Amino acid sequence: MKLRTSFLFGCLIFLVGCNAAPGTWGWYVIDPRTPAGYNNIRFLLNGFGATILLSVIAAAMSMIVGMLVALPGMSSNRWVRLPSRIYIEFVRAIPLLPMLFWVFYGLPVVLKSMGISVSIDAFWGAIITLAISDSAFTAEIYRSGIQSIAKGQTEAAKTVGLNYMQTMRYVILPQAIRRILPPLANQFIYIVKMSAFASVIGMQELTRRANELVVTEYRPLEIYSLLILEYLVLVLIISFFVRWLERKMGSDESR
Amino acid sequence: MKTGDAIEIKDLNKWYGDYQALKNIDLNVAHGERIVVCGPSGSGKSTLIRCVNSLEDHDSGRIVVDGIEMIDNESINAIRSEVGMVFQQFNLFPHLTILQNLTLGPMKARGMSKADADARAMEYLERVRIPDQAHKKPSELSGGQQQRVAIARSLCMEPKIMLFDEPTSALDPEMISEVLDVIVDLAEEGMTMIVVTHEMGFARRAADRMIFMDHGEVIETGTPTEFFEAPKTERCKQFLSQILQH
Ligand SMILES: Nc1ncnc2c1ncn2[C@@H]1O[C@H](COP(=O)(O)OP(=O)(O)O)[C@@H](O)[C@H]1O
Ligand SMILES: [Mg+2]
């Protein structure tokens, strides 16, 4: 009830804003009916491509790195486990923004000193940072998913002659996947939201475009409102997919 | 034909932290011999047979299975391919059909073709008397049927030795005999086996030798007749009187 009232109230402000005199509200800046507004809105919406591409590649890399970290992390040998534990604790402790600066400005220097001269552009700098930062969480999702499969499954696989990789591939992962996929998809939402940080190193994604337009148009309220709406739509679509996945995986479990 | 016994265990010790689960176990099992292991819960029966196929590693002592001494990963793999195991909780692969449960090992570990593996699987499903369930998932079967599938899954690897860890303890009473009958069939065909069980009727029917364990030690061993008619130790007498009351 309360939620609906505040929603209606919000709509009211929005409508009043639309019709208010110039100087207080200025939706004209993104009004697709005017040529300037149309250009602006196209400029902003074009950020979707970069945001989505950034997030998808980072998520894919995070899934791979996370697996490489998680597998030794479940070894019965503590010395095999240790590097994986250190990686997870270390990476989780670093805030995203400082890590982004370090990767973008610092990493090329490190690489150069090692004789590797590559320039890291904003796109790959952002992807590397997002992937590393997220991989610590992905690794933990894998670990809990895999460890939730009973020990008896591994033992049964051993007694029919399967080696470690075969046991993972044919016995453990197919069962773990239904416990791993929903939280993994959920984690994707975090990547999408975190990808906004890429704007500070010049990546032309949703947030960067909004910032640039604000600088030229002086209309922060309208432009940032749209920006929030853009993320909202993106995240709601993903959440919908996660919800669907959870239901599908859950109903599979009972079979 | 290899000389020596199917299983030779010498001076086996196993610790869980500072708890000693197996104490100086010596045990030889001849080819074709059927051994029943019994003893109170926590006496180390599971630990002992799990050492035989290295599901548990031991701290000292010698284990030789079918002439292969357990020393490194390579010998462990070689031993595992000779030894089948059936668990109390069946441990079937729930995401696979019955047929796939049976063919996974032969196809992936032995490189057998699907057609050959399927044919072999169906043969063993006949043997455990459930060929008509091949395309169901494990959860659609009764406990007794699941355990028979687990036995068939082991047999598909054509092991020389079978280990059974309380194969009927998780079953409803009316399903116990259908599983024991399958194990008796195997025994009669000459399979070497170690069966951990409290089913004394089965022991009388199928065992060549009884082993009684307590607190990680082998307390008594003998033929079923000796064992049931004239137990030598007090602990064994006590245990038998408790078991046979049910
Ligand atoms: N993984 C383990 N960690 C610690 N103690 C264990 C473990 N497995 C078994 N034990 C202990 O070792 C003893 C023997 O266990 P087990 O071989 O399972 O007995 P049984 O099969 O005769 O009931 C028990 O006291 C048990 O608590
Ligand atoms: Mg036991």
Describe this structure in words.
The complex is a heterodimer of chains A (255) and B (246). With 255 residues, chain A is mainly alpha-helical. Chain A has helices at 2-19, 35-45, 47-73, 78-93, 96-113, 122-147, 151-159, 164-194, 206-217, 220-253. Chain B is of the alpha/beta class and 246 residues long. Chain B has a six-stranded mixed beta sheet, with helices on both faces. In chain B, strands 2-1-4-5 form a four-stranded antiparallel beta sheet, covered by helices on one side. The relative contact order of chain B is 0.17. Chain A binds chain B through residues 150, 152-153, 155-163, 166, 170-171, 174-175, 255, and chain B through 53, 55, 77, 80-81, 83-85, 87, 89, 91-95, 104-105, 108-110, 137, 139, 150, 153-154, 156-157. The complex binds adenosine-5'-diphosphate and magnesium ion.
Gyration radius of chain B, in Å: 18 Å
Q: Name the beta content range of chain B.
A: 15-25%
As a percent range, the share of strand residues of chain A is: under 5%
So how many helices of chain B?
Answer: 9
The helical percent of chain A reads over 70%
Mean pLDDT over all positions of chain B:
94
Helix content of chain B: 25-40%
Number of strands of chain A: 0
Q: Strands across the major sheet of chain B, in which order?
A: 6-7-8-3-9-10
| Helix/strand class of chain A | mainly alpha
Short recap of the structure:
The complex is a heterodimer of chains A (255) and B (246). Chain A has 255 residues and is an all-alpha fold.
SSE inventory with pairings:
The complex is a heterodimer of chains A (255) and B (246).
Chain A: H1 2-19, H2 35-45, H3 47-73, H4 78-93, H5 96-113, H6 122-147, H7 151-159, H8 164-194, H9 206-217, H10 220-253
Helix pairs in contact in A: 2-9, 3-4, 3-6, 3-8, 3-9, 4-6, 5-6, 6-8, 7-8, 8-10, 9-10
Chain B: E1 7-16, E2 19-29, E3 34-38, H1 45-52, E4 60-65, E5 68-69, H2 73-80, E6 83-86, H3 98-109, H4 114-127, H5 143-155, E7 161-165, H6 173-188, E8 192-196, H7 200-206, E9 209-214, E10 217-222, H8 224-229, H9 234-245
Parallel strand pairs in B: 3-8, 3-9, 6-7, 7-8
Antiparallel strand pairs in B: 1-2, 1-4, 4-5, 9-10
